[in-house]
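Same chain as my last thread, 429 residues:
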Amino acid sequence: MHRSELQNTPIPEAGGRTLAEHFRATRALTEALVAPLSDADASIQSMEDASPAKWHLAHTTWFWETFLLREHAPGYRLHDERWPFLFNSYYEAEGARIARAARGMLSRPTLAEVLAWRAHVTEAMAPLLGDPALADLIALGIAHEEQHIELLLTDIKHALFQNTLGPAMWAPAGKGEAAAATLAAASSVWHTHPGGIALVGHQSDGFAFDNEGPRHRVLLEPFALADRLVTNGEWAEFIADGGYRNPRLWLADGWGWVQREGIAAPLYWGEDGTHFTHQGWQARDPSAPVTHISHYEADAFATWAGARLPTEFEWEAIARGQDSSASTPAHDPRGGNQLYCAGPVLPMGSPGLFGDCWQFTRSAYLPYPGFRVAEGAVGEYNGKFMSGQVVLRGASCATVRGHSRVSYRNFFYPHQRWQFTGLRLAKDA
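reply #2:
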């Protein structure tokens, strides 16, 4: 399929498709997302936290070549023996690699060469896709590439934002082509929970990352969780009320960060009611969920609003349908505003706990009781990052639909905000 055709190809829903179909759809979506980019666009790196789009294309291909083809395809030879040094991310077991901050210096290989390598690896994977013994590793590889799809979108947005021309990755929507209207922000419904013992963590036979288990019991005190995300309009009120100037609202580290970095609004906000998007500078919808905020900002807003952030276990209990109402169903992890095809992404406001923005919790990213790091290089995937980060739950508008779960644990450092991050308020009942 030609790259221009891929751009508008929806990904199939996960239900009912084979592992091979899921693999091919994920590979195609990654390539569709870079279709609007030039070689220069795809090569730039705007900060150490972000990576060039070309690097994401290559790293996900390196993953398949290293952990599947090299180990399990008889007679397979590396496409280029020099490239593992360039496209390994953080796997110490796989040896030396280029410094993370230097990924933007890779003018070679070119975008075209990386895409050719991707095609070679995708074709070479075909004989392995039906091997039941490799199914778990292939599922991990698919989930890994889906994570990089979201990172690709957020990293290129940050890179384009650095250009004073405000370039658009996709053309702005014309009249009559705008995204679906946002939900009214006036809702004040709260999901309430009576407290007690709750069972949390991954609880099915389907795929999950190692950090989602083991399942275990936690004690919850009575609490309530808001039925919607905080909006741009509410955040503007926080700013107008001096939210960024009042140290009483902030954690000490957060106040130091605000002072040191001169933070006065969410990332990408302009002073004229606009914000930067994948479609360039656009008017900001006051009813849409606020996004691109740090954990420090989320916590300060919650304090200002007379509420707090939920714990990750409170969030999960409500997501599982453990509301005080016996008729409350579990929330659909595939629901809400999530990524289903290549195109611009933006929080709009949608029902349920999933979609639009990853939601900050007040929980530190730590191992669950009984957690064990897996053997081999794949054991480096999650466990070694369980220090100094906070947990986010849900999914965002840039999350591939079907990627997230009720037990899914995303995690970032408290100051980071280039991802689609937002907040949902909680309070003691």
